[in-house]
Automatic annotation (TrEMBL):
Domain Thiaminase-2/PQQC: from-to ranges: 6-151
Protein name: Putative Thiamin biosynthesis protein Thi-4
GO cellular component: cytosol
Pfam families hit by this protein: TENA_THI-4 (PF03070)
Highest taxon listed in the record's lineage: Eukaryota
Biological processes annotated in GO: thiamine biosynthetic process
A Gene Ontology molecular function term of the record: hydroxymethylpyrimidine kinase activity
Leader sequence segment: none
Length: 156
């Protein structure tokens, strides 16, 4: 039951995170309606469909592993940028994004997600561990492509 409750809290956080993204885009003059009309880029399609595929064809743990590069990665990147002395704060168009991902609710979601993974990964067989590692590697590759798209170096 604890894993279910922790997963539910993470899902609730995703809902809040989505609202933060919509508000963040609005600060640049891009409305939710405009975003919904834009075509989805290949990198976004590949990554989101991979997550959906894992969720539909694998078990709960595999889905958590597939989501981990996003959940844990964003927290780690934001924490590094937030604490880095060289990070520009004033006039940084991404500063609000950084603050959102070091906020208490997000760091709690990362802690819960990491704890769930640690707890459940201890219980799997070596062969299952290898399968889950492959899922994590692929999800990480797709997350990198997703970031590359956002940075403008992805395929157009």
């Amino acid at each position: 039951m604890e894993s279910i409750a922790a997963s539910a809290r993470i899902v609730l956080h995703i809902q809040r995170e989505t609202a933060l993204h919509v508000d963040y885009c609005a600060s640049f003059g891009l409305s939710k309606e405009e975003m919904e009309k834009l075509p989805e880029k290949m990198e976004c399609t590949a990554y989101s469909r991979y997550i959906l595929d894992v969720g539909q064809s694998e078990d709960w743990l595999a889905l958590q592993v597939a989501l981990a590069p996003c959940l844990i990665g964003y927290g780690a990147i934001a924490q590094r940028l937030y604490t880095e002395e060289k990070t520009l704060r004033d006039g940084n168009r991404y500063w609000k994004w950084i603050e959102n991902y070091v906020a208490e609710d997000y760091t709690e979601a990362v802690r819960l997600g990491s704890e769930l993974l640690e707890t459940h990964m201890r219980k799997v067989s070596p062969s299952r561990m290898e399968e889950l590692i492959k899922i994590f590697i692929r999800a990480t590759e797709l997350e990198i492509e997703f970031w590359s798209m956002g940075l403008g170096s992805g395929r157009q």
